[in-house]
Amino acid sequence: MVRALSTNYEDFAGASRPFRAHAELDDLEVEGEIPLELCGTFYRVSHDPYYERDYYEGGAKTTSFDADGSISAFRIEDGKASFKQRYVLTERFLAERKAGRAMFGVMTSPFSHHPCVRSMEDNVANTNIIVHAGKLLALGELGAPYELDPNTMATVGHNPFPGQIPVNGPYTAHPKVDPDTGELVGFGYGLKGAESNDCTVWILDRNGKKTFERPFERVITGFIHDCAITRNYIVLQQMPFRTSFEQLKTKDGHLWTYDEGLPTYFYIVPRDMDKPVRTFHWKNSMPIHTGACWEEGRNIIFDTTVASSNTFPFLRKSSASTGEPKPVTVNYVRFSIDPNAVSEEVADPEILVDLPCEFPRIDERFLTKRSRYTFLDCFNPESMVDPALVFRGLNCLGRFDSETRKLEIMSPGPGVLVQEPCFSPRYPEAPEGDGFLITMIDNVPKLRNEVIIQDTKDFQNIVARIVLPFRASSP
Ligand SMILES: [Fe+2]
């Protein structure tokens, strides 16, 4: 008997309900016209649990992290588009398919898994997809990248850079490609276990060969989700979560607890091994995804979204919290840190976008340099929902101009939710920000997903909607 998937967990419900399919379609319906300059593949990754995540405590402690990675590829050429979707065939996914049910509990917590799979790697490759050294890589923060065939989408293997980064260790989902050198700058934390405060930064050259490795100790355990790079530094931003297996075993406890008594930390890692790794701190908050980053005078300037408190509603806060809970804000801000400063306290950042927003993307040809434009998801100011639920309510696309300090917002329609945008330049030498913004949206009223394309010459105009005749899962 096949059991219906229940929707006991909000992030796998509604528009985010699992898709659970490999699919392929040619000559997709297109409303409008796909610009002929666009030729290539738009890849996206989604959280798409194949089975109900109910192995450990009936799913009561399931989080949105515990979902299988599924990759979509939209191939665009001559004004036409095709679609292919495949699961990443991780060790975990294959084991559960063989069993016909969930066997893994809470990520990185082997005791919560079925005894038969505790020695397997628990990596879902569900967070990001990039290309490096000619390899298409599906990334999850808590495991090494999986390599996919860029055409068939078949899973090739799990060791894309043999001997360069640990095959069974955590690796960030958000490494950065230095556009000048082609190097991949990435890191992994908790290589010695989820309760360990170790962290290592690696740089792989354009051929995937390791040229830099720098381990250091963090102040606390917990998430470092994203980083920023300049010519000479890597900035790692640590959210104030603590990890504890004992907490997970308590009633309502999770492996990760947001600690309101902690600051957020920024680790500045110089590429020059003779210079020390520095640890800076700012007030309790949750820095999430980075945008532009460059060096200016003595300082490192970096932009990031930052929430004033926990925006993972499924993870509880520490009991250190006192008084009435304050409303959560999520803004796009600009920090400035002098890596040689005596004080380790970071000054308040400049608020760039004073509106709930997330998933900033820049013209990535300008990473490590001062850049002007940031594209990002944001809330429609006229239909605000609780910013603490920012990941469930983003419904507009924004373009922030850091010269004029203006934000232009485009709404793709009532009831529509937007996923992470991706910028493609009009041609290789096009000026910064001149090109196309490509975004998958959840057209909830029409029960379908679309990829929308904006020409940045007229940000308000959707020049093409590539229509899926069904709804795929959300990220
Ligand atoms: Fe992310």
TrEMBL record:
Signal peptide positions on this chain: none
Entry keywords, A to Z: Iron, Metal-binding, Oxidoreductase
Family: Belongs to the carotenoid oxygenase family.
Coiled-coil regions listed: none
Residues reported to bind Fe cation: 174, 225, 289
Cofactor note (record): Binds 1 Fe(2+) ion per subunit.
Entry-linked InterPro entries: Carotenoid_Oase
GO molecular function annotations of the record: carotenoid dioxygenase activity; metal ion binding
PANTHER family attached to this UniProt entry: BETA-CAROTENE DIOXYGENASE, CAROTENOID 9,10(9',10')-CLEAVAGE DIOXYGENASE 1
Cofactor(s) this protein requires: Fe(2+)
Record protein name field: Carotenoid oxygenase
